[in-house]
Design the sequence.
């Protein structure tokens, strides 16, 4: 495998270009040619999760036009990867042509950390990050894709990095896509607990593999004047 | 208790979410529950395979529902049980009130039953001049406070032992104590007189075995058994989904139900009821009624996705696992069934207008699905209901203004996202306008539908689509 496609995701494009660039660098350093395709902007997850299946199916159709099987598709977001892998077949169940395309593409779709560890068999990417870091496992990565160990294995090999345990780590940060703005009070209460646990971990950085969680936790920590910063896993792996 | 639309939910949820004390109690209870559950699971190797076995039996039961219900009815009637099929809550209430009135019952003792909460039985009995006393300790406590249960297994989970001590001192005139055994002793003494003077006992049903016509009630305090054996009349109330085919199926359910619900190997009391006392029996009720409730369940049955919700054992584990439930508590949902299970059944039981907003009040984190003993795919059902309430013809939710605006913006985004270059242009303009307001990468205030975001947390300064190339960092 020489060529991979990196899907920047809508949140990656607009809010976390650093994470996308870092993912690209990590993949390139592993000797891969990284293609970015610009014809699909969003996988449709937000619309799908809001019950807007028609709109989501339109975006899925566009996505499936853009991305073909045969080239690994790396997604630096657990929830976007699970949207494609787990929820496309449900979303497209009554559109046989699209369903067929989705099923053909799915084996090629990998979340970033999963791709490195399970597909490439790499855990040491030669990174160095002399800081204390805690890892927040994103819900979709954890419970839909069942990617549990890959991010930790990667972090364990980073020079100088001290991994701190995140208390109640597997608890949702309260993002939930539109939930965060439709139910801001509930979302904020969940976020407050997550921030408290992040502080308790004693880490300088909290890392996650999902733009949604990063925006939620980052926004909560910044509002609370915390010194803890958020980073995408790729940003740590790209550090030298 | 019935939900009454999104406005009431928003108000109650906001209040509860700000109540750190409530959150602390729920977190503690949930932590304890999962510690006990972990021990129970670790010492019982077949736990996982028993989950699968139980799930398969539920699948079979729901598949053969009408046939099994007919068999159950026939077996029970053969032993003198009066079986009544209630199409809705009103029919069930009326039937029970009628039976009580005809027998001249003045006082009813109740075992814990969420189904009777669902149909609003207590207020109906009260209106008919019949006193209904809850005899499960947790239910007794919330009834003294004149509030509904806030959890389907632990009704007083929102109260501390100090709260309960104060309540007893105030309502029962006993000296204040927060010692649980002492408080339990007070309730036990009070309830004893009530039990002995009650003309009717009302309970739920955990499983109804079609093959043998056996009603199974599991509980921990013996109050359920008291309700089913001491009063002259026993009325059992169950949803149509409680029937299972064979007696031997019970072993699979009993192995996992108590473990998942409370971390116990088995509940302290497991009663197998077969009907009124026979001529040569020395005790037992003289009359037994079974009310089999539909109340929207056949609508769930008819929907291939919703049908899975009928496998529920009402173990309550998904409530404890749910971070939303733990932050707003059971009362905010305003439904007899709060938490994840409540959000997937309430729209069918109480209607889309009343409860259609509940499936949206979830981050889809999946913690519920992970603990569910019969592996109900709750997130998938939530998504399905969201679709039904949006474009699937399942009724409309009367969204308050702010979330309605967010939904409109989401629709706009989804349609615009079909045209990536247009989205990127819009992103660049937005980023250009917002950049001057950023403070080390974050915005404190955002306009329009984003205002709900920045009301409670900061927003990362948009990059203007720089991530698309994978080359630029901001
Ligand atoms: S949905 Fe599952 S976890 Fe929730 S109450 Fe029902 S059986 Fe228990």
Sequence:
């Amino acid at each position: 495998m020489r060529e991979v496609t990196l899907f920047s995701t809508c949140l990656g494009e607009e809010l976390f270009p650093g994470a996308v660039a870092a993912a690209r660098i990590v993949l390139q350093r592993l000797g891969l040619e990284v293609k970015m395709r610009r014809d699909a902007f969003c996988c449709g997850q937000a619309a799908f999760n809001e019950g807007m299946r028609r709109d989501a199916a339109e975006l899925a159709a566009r996505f499936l036009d853009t991305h073909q099987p045969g080239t690994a598709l790396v997604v630096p977001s657990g929830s976007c990867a699970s949207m494609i892998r787990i929820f496309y077949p449900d979303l497209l169940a009554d559109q046989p042509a699209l369903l067929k395309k989705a099923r053909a593409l799915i084996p090629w779709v990998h979340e970033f950390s999963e791709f490195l560890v399970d597909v490439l068999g790499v855990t040491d990417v030669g990174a160095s990050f002399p800081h204390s870091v805690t890892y927040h496992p994103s819900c979709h990565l954890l419970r839909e894709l069942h990617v549990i160990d890959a991010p930790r294995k990667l972090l364990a090999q980073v020079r100088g990095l001290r991994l701190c345990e995140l208390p109640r780590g597997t608890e949702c940060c309260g993002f939930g896509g539109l939930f965060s703005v439709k139910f801001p009070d509930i979302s904020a209460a969940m976020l407050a607990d997550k921030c408290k646990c992040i502080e308790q971990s004693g880490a300088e950085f909290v890392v996650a593999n999902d733009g949604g969680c990063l925006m939620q936790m980052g926004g909560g920590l910044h509002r609370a004047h915390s010194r803890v910063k958020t980073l995408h896993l790729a940003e740590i792996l790209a550090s030298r | 208790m019935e939900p009454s639309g999104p406005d009431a939910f928003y108000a109650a949820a906001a209040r509860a979410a700000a109540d750190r004390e409530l959150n602390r109690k729920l977190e503690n209870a949930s932590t304890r529950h999962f510690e006990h559950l972990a021990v129970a699971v670790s010492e019982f190797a077949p736990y996982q395979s028993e989950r699968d076995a139980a799930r398969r039996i539920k699948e079979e039961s729901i598949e053969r529902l009408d046939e099994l219900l007919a068999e159950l009815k026939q077996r029970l009637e053969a032993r003198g049980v009066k079986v009544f099929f209630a199409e809705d809550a009103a029919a069930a209430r009326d039937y029970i009130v009628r039976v009580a009135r005809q027998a001249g019952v003045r006082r009813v003792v109740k075992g814990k039953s969420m189904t009777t909460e669902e149909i609003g039985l207590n207020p109906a009995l009260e209106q008919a001049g019949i006193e209904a006393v809850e005899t499960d300790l947790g239910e007794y406590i919330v009834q003294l406070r004149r509030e509904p249960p806030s959890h389907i297994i632990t009704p007083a989970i929102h109260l501390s032992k100090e709260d309960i001590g104060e309540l007893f001192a105030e309502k029962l005139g006993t000296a204040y104590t927060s010692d649980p055994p002492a408080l339990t002793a007070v309730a036990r003494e009070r309830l004893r007189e009530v039990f002995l003077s009650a003309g009717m006992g009302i309970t739920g049903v955990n499983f109804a075995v079609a093959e043998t016509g056996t009603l199974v009630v599991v509980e921990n305090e013996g109050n359920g058994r008291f309700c089913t054996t001491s009063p002259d009349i026993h009325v059992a109330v169950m949803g149509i989904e409680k029937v299972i085919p064979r007696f031997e199926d019970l072993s699979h359910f009993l192995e996992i139900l108590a473990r998942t619900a409370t971390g116990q190997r088995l509940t302290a009391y497991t009663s197998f009821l077969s009907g009124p006392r026979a001529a040569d029996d020395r005790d037992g009720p003289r009359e037994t009624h079974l009310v089999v409730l539909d109340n929207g369940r056949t609508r769930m049955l008819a929907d291939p996705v919703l049908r899975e919700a009928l496998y529920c054992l009402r173990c309550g584990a998904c409530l404890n696992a749910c971070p939303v439930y733990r932050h707003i508590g059971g009362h905010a949902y305003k439904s007899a069934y709060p938490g994840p299970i409540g959000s997937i059944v309430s729209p069918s039981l109480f209607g889309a207008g009343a409860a259609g907003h509940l499936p949206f009040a979830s981050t889809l984190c999946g913690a519920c699905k992970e603990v569910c003993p019969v592996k109900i795919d709750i997130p998938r059902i939530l998504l399905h209901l969201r679709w039904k309430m949006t474009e699937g013809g399942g009724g409309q939710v009367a969204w308050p203004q702010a979330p309605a605006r967010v939904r409109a913006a989401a629709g706009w985004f989804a349609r615009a996202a079909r045209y990536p270059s247009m989205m990127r242009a819009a992103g660049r303009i937005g980023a250009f306008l917002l950049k001057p307001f950023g403070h080390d990468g974050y915005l404190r205030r955002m306009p329009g539908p984003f205002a709900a975001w920045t009301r409670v947390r900061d927003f990362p300064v948009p990059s203007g689509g720089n991530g698309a190339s994978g080359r630029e960092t901001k």
Q: What stands out?
A: Chain B touches chain A through 73 residues (CB under 8 Å). Chain B has a mean pLDDT of 95.
